[in-house]
Amino acid sequence: MLALCAVAAPLQAADEEKALAFKTSVTNAPLKRVSADVFEIGLVRLDKAMRTVSFPAVVNLQEGLMEYLVVCHNGKIHESVFITEAEPYHIHLAMLFLGAKIAPPAPPEQRVTEKEMPGELITIWVTWQAQEAEARRARGESLILHAATRQPMSEGPWTYNGSWVFEGTFLAQRERSIVAIFTDYDALANNPRPGRDNDELWLANKDKIPSPGTKVTMTFALPPLENESKTK
């Protein structure tokens, strides 16, 4: 765990008091073993056997133009379907623990949005308890509509790029951005589909999203390891 904490640069705070609070609450959060393959760090749970990282969230917005699937509660909540109190730093450490192949972005002048976004392809699941007491589960992209066609996003993976570090600051932690629909290299994960560079193209799918305030679990699922997939 100590080695993992050294991978991502610590967040720079505005003053020494905030820096100390960050160091205590985030970088020193213990990795707790729940069972043989399940661990927790802060509000984040990782499952080595299933290759998943999960964290709690709540429905924030059910309709309108969206730029994020999920952000922190003190992030860009005016344009995100879900909000969470889980720390981006903890999510990132959990993904690194599972061996996610991160791909920090190229310098701004070298980024070309038409090209494939590099990073680890992951499946994003959202689960919640419905009023009829039956658990519901949906792929993250099914909760977002294309504004022109009014059809859900094409089914497929999202890209976990892992944000990046600028002048010693881990930007996902500073910006509180976790999964972006409209391209945001500061976020931990991004939408890789065509049109990701258009901030007026994506709508919340109000017919699929539960009511605001509903508690959900967000899950990032990594693909199986190559040697495991060959044995199945």
Question: What does this molecule look like?
Answer:
- The protein has one domain.
- It is built from five helices and 16 strands.
- The strands form three sheets. It has an eight-stranded mixed barrel with strand order 4-6-5-13-14-10-7-16. Strands 9-15 form a two-stranded antiparallel ribbon.
- The protein has helices at residues 2-5, 16-27, 88-97, 171-175, 226-230; strands at residues 31-33, 38-41, 44-47, 52-59, 68-72, 80-84, 120-129, 135-139, 144-146, 158-160, 165-166, 169-170, 177-180, 189-190, 202-204, 215-221.
- It is globular, with a radius of gyration of 17 Å.
- Strand 2 (38-41) and strand 3 form a beta hairpin.
- The protein has 232 residues and is α+β, with helices and mostly antiparallel strands.
- It starts with a helix and ends with a helix.
Q: Output the number of helix runs.
A: 5
Global shape: globular
Mean pLDDT: 85
Number of strands: 16
- Strand order, sheet with most strands: 4-6-5-13-14-10-7-16
Count of the separate structural domains: 1
Helix percentage:
10-25%
Report the biggest beta sheet as strand number plus sense, adding barrel if it closes: 8 strands, mixed, barrel
Q: What sequence of helices (H) and strands (E) makes up the elements?
A: HHEEEEEEHEEEEEEHEEEEH
State Rg.
17 Å
Structural class: alpha+beta
The end-to-end distance, rounded to whole angstroms, is 30 Å
Low-confidence runs: 1-25
Name the beta content range. Answer: 25-35%
